[in-house]
Amino acid sequence: MKIKCAIIDDEPSSQNILKHLIGDVDFLEIAGVCNDAVDAMTFLKETKVDLLFLDINMPNLSGISFYKMLNNPPLVIFTTAYSEYAIEGFDVNAIDYLLKPFSFERFLKAVQKVKNKLVLEKEFIIIKSNKKLYQLKVNDILFIEALGDYIKIYTKDKVLVSYKTLGNILSLLPANKYIQIHKSYIINQSKLDFVEGNQVTIGLKKIPIGQKFKINFLKRLNS
């Protein structure tokens, strides 16, 4: 799992340090670098990220004030040279607070908290079906079938119909377990019984493999 990060800091030297540290951690990926809150606001409207490295003491608008303005904000690790901001940073549910200058070991401890939180969140997804919200354990999903503007999610003991597209649901699922094998089907690869010709079998269900998806699917099976 790659965690997409954005650096928001008005000091080029701090940006460069964070770029270097992020580059040394295999599960982190830089999605963008912003010099201030105004740049960041525009960037986040266009780009989805999982984590912000957000400097608190910036011109015009502080990092904490900026973060409070965001709707559905990403996770955040605040960075600053001023320890007096720490309590305020945690008041907005920051994952961690890095006091400059910080070591690689301290940085790694902070980002590991992020990784652990995101992995835990991926164990369940929330699905709306028949005017109810279901907390669905991700690994219970066998396969998903598209029905126009709706999808049918099959588990061992139930089928949920939800107003989503395959693309919507695929973005919520762990990429290392779930794969689209047909324009109308996503499967949980760990639930696969066998492949025969242009079909896969999961339990009693035979699911077609679309020609467009076949090469990628077979590569996944053989990797």
Rg for CA atoms: 21 Å
Strand order of the largest sheet: 2-1-3-4-5
Helix content: 25-40%
Parts with pLDDT < 50 across at least 5 consecutive residues? none
Choose one word for the global shape. Answer: elongated
Largest sheet report: 5 strands, parallel
Could you give the distance between the termini? 17 Å
Number of distinct beta strands: 15
Q: Structural class from helices and strands?
A: alpha/beta
Mean pLDDT: 90
Strand fraction equals: 25-35%
| Continuous helix count | 7
Order of helices and strands: EHEHEHEHEHEEEEEHEEEEEH
Describe what you observe in this structure:
With about 220 residues, this protein is an alpha/beta fold. About 25% of the residues are buried. It contains 7 helices and 15 strands. The longest helix has 18 residues, at about 105-120. Helix content is about 30%, strand content about 35%. It is elongated, with a radius of gyration of 21 Å. Strands 2-1-3-4-5 form a 5-stranded parallel β-sheet, with helices on both faces. The chain has a 5-stranded antiparallel β-sheet with strand order 10-9-8-12-11. Strands 13-14-15 form a 3-stranded antiparallel β-sheet, with no helix packed on it.
Give the gist of this structure:
This protein has helices at 12-23, 37-46, 63-69, 86-91, 104-121, 166-170, 211-222; strands at residues 3-8, 28-34, 51-55, 75-80, 96-99, 124-129, 132-137, 141-147, 150-155, 159-162, 178-182, 185-188, 194-196, 199-202, 205-208.
Summary tags:
elongated; 5-stranded antiparallel beta sheet; 223 residues; single chain; 31% helix; 5-stranded parallel beta sheet; alpha/beta; 15 strands
